[in-house]
Structures are given as C-alpha cells and as structure tokens.
Cytokinin riboside 5'-monophosphate phosphoribohydrolase (Sporolactobacillus shoreae), 199 residues
Amino acid sequence: MSKTICIYAGSNLGNDPEYAAGALKLGDAIARKGWGLIYGGSSIGLMGIIADRVLEKGGEVTGVMPKGLVLGEMAHTHLTRLLEVDSMHARKDKMNELSDGFIALPGGIGTFDELFEILCWAQIGIHHKPIGLLNAAGYFDSLLTLIQHSIDHEFANQSNLDLLCVSDNPDELLDKMAAYIPPDLGNKWRQLAKGKTGH
C-alpha cells in the first residue's frame, strides 16, 4: 500500500472524548508513517481535528470540498491543498482517485454514506484498496452487527466482512491496512450461483 489515506469522519465531535482522542492518535500515526491525508476539507468536528494534527506534525493534508461549502465557514484555510469540485459526487470521486486507502472515524449520515459507497465499490471490484474502521469506544460495533445481519439473512456473503480492517488502535489499524490482501469474495449473486434466475 502506498502513502495517501482518505479519512471519512464526523463534522461534529460526538459525545465521547474517545472519538476526538482517536482522531488525534490516528493523525499522529499517519504523520509518523509519512503518509498524506485526504479528507473533506472541513475545519470543524473530527475532520478538523485530524487535519490539524497531521499538519501540526509536518504532514501533508489535501481537502476536497464542493464549491458551495467552500464559500461557507467550514472550509479549512491552512491545508497543503484545498481542491474545489462541482458536487458531492465529484468530491467522492476525487477522494477515491487521490487515495490509496480509506478509514472511517465516528460520524453521522455523511460518514456512513461515504463508507458504504466505497465498501460497495470494493464488493463489486471497482477498487481493491483497503478500508478501515477506527472503532473508537466501540462506535462501529452496531454497524458491524448490521452487516453481519445482512449476511445472516443471505443478502451478502460472509467474505464481505473481510473487506474491512477494524481496530480501536490507530497504529494497529494502519498496519492491518498496509498488509491488506483483497479477499476472494465469491459469487455475489446467490441465484446465479445456483443456476436460477430472478423475477
């Protein structure tokens, strides 16, 4: 794996100090490895915390933000680069293009949207990059249970969980991602695997 990590994270801080602490530790770990940070360009929430930390430690940080948001107060003004794009879809495409791996920190609907899109892209073979969850204070336990629920009800394969590297320890998470080998996902479509057609 090479040296740019895309971060998906909340634009709020959440109600547990472990979330911000995890963002700081991950920023330290990314900077220690000399990896660059790609993220949504905000100056607030967990997004702002990790960007500030990587910059503070001498790392490079690239923000990608739709033009309408840049005009507001959320845009970080001290990044290595701030790229303006036309839309939220263009933002996600650009972040994928620039990144060699992805990590979700605690966040809300926007974070889940970004995480599940990049996970879906891995599932159908659009990319083969590692995807990590920084599971600070067990934040993603329920999400992992939801994915397992979809597997138990045969809407996904068990191998889909192998697309995710999960840890509450940033150094361990980055090590898992550096060693990531894309899993053999098998046949996504159970009916086709059984020689049946749907209606």
The beta strands are 4-8, 36-39, 61-66, 81-85, 101-104, 131-134, 164-167.
